[in-house]
Amino acid sequence: MEITNEQLLQLLQEKLEQRPAKSMLKMEISDFTADAYKQGEFIKVSKKDLLGKWSVLFFYPADFTFVCPTELADLQDNYEKFKKIGCEIYSVSMDSHFVHKAWHESSDRINHVEYAMIGDPNGQLTKQFSLYSPADGMAERGTIVINPEGKVASYEVVSDNIGRNAEELLRKVEASQFVYEHGDQVCPAKWKPGTETIKPTFDLVGKL
Description:
Blueprint: H1 5-18, E1 33-38, E2 41-46, H2 47-50, E3 54-59, H3 67-77, H4 79-84, E4 87-93, H5 97-106, E5 116-119, H6 124-128, E6 132-133, E7 138-139, E8 141-146, E9 152-158, H7 166-181
Parallel strand pairs: 3-4, 4-5
Antiparallel strand pairs: 1-2, 1-5, 3-8, 6-7, 8-9
């Protein structure tokens, strides 16, 4: 029985879909340079800007939409808290930096945003983190926490119709920072700075 090219392509596609997703955790980000809009200016953002400190790449589908402005405004409301712990915020969509400027100037919510808004029209960053949605040509709602070494410390993707919580993201960054500095300890559910952590030992097995 001969297999047609179409059948062969279908089999290959099914095999690809069955492969387990490659984990992004601990992956070092690739070099990149992108245009961004920040506080009335166009700037360049590259991998070098992320090294040596904690960073969040906050991907969202598009400017001039509905859930996205509420998320970016929520991030701005908590921006000083992120800076206080040495973490920089970068929002990213596949709009250009010119569109970011227009949105920033026309939206009452976005007008207050002070962090860099990265334009990724060619999908360079979006595709690096497997966040490109070919169905609509936009980025998925993904949140990437990058440690000072330029490696992924946390990776999360949620549905397009669900907005994220900046305070919970702040908690996750704080937890990521803690375990980065205290490798022999782990942070339990609902952990916040100053609360008890766990030091895994043989004697503790089965007692939690």
